[in-house]
Amino acid sequence: MVVDDEPSIVTLLQFNLTQAGYDVVTAGDGLTALEVAEKEQPDLIILDLMLPGKDGLDVCRDLRFKKIMTPILMLTAKDEEFDKVLGLELGADDYMTKPFSPREVVARVKAILRRTAQPETASESNDEKITIGELEIYPGRYEAFLRGTELDLTPKEFELLVYLARNKGRVLSREQLLERVWDYEFAGDTRIVDVHVSHLREKIEENTRKPLYIKTIRGLGYKLEEPKKK
Known about the structure:
There is one protein chain. This protein is of the alpha/beta class and about 230 residues long. It has 2 domains: about 1-115, 3-Layer(aba) Sandwich (Rossmann fold), CATH 3.40.50.2300; about 120-225, Arc Repressor Mutant, subunit A (Orthogonal Bundle), CATH 1.10.10. It is about 40% helix and about 15% strand. The chain has helices at about 5-20, 30-40, 55-65, 80-90, 100-115, 155-165, 175-180, 190-205; strands spanning about 1-5, 25, 45-50, 70-75, 95, 130, 135-140, 145, 150, 215, 220-225. It has a 5-stranded parallel sheet with strand order 2-1-3-4-5, with helices on both faces. Strands 6-7-8-9 form a 4-stranded antiparallel sheet, covered by helices on one side. Strands 10-11 form a two-stranded antiparallel sheet. The N and C termini lie far apart (about 50 Å).
């Protein structure tokens, strides 16, 4: 699904995505985008930040509030870090800044869909369970629990948690996390990792200033470890 109020951009993206083998539906404003998203249930949404009616941030917020967890690729014409980070904080999975290359958009779409549509393997079945401290993670079911209470995680937060958990005790650089979790090279834009780690901490740590699970290793990256018993 492509959501943009500039017909030329919609046409450009629709043409290139169709050429790549995807079916494309479109919307030109925020309110229509919400209606189409609920009706069509797309596999991915390319969402412009500046839209009439409801802007992209409001659309993203409303979709996540309705528990519609479709991956969202946010488009923004602005270079301000605030816009990018805010979009990620509201539940967007990725962002690109205009002007962009259509080929890069298609590559990003393929990467997101490849990651979210990977078939289960014997080691990643619905029965798999990862337990770390009071965390219980079920990768195949896209569910995670803390002390028996299900965590409300976005798809990207969940995938990041699973990758950290499967590499428990290992220090992972931001660049590694970008490559493995986002499945795409972001040219060193590691802020996207920091935002999602911050959100994970808010949801699993009692004190985000003194995290028990996700530790920052200064100058290197992050690692998830078994909490030390008090």
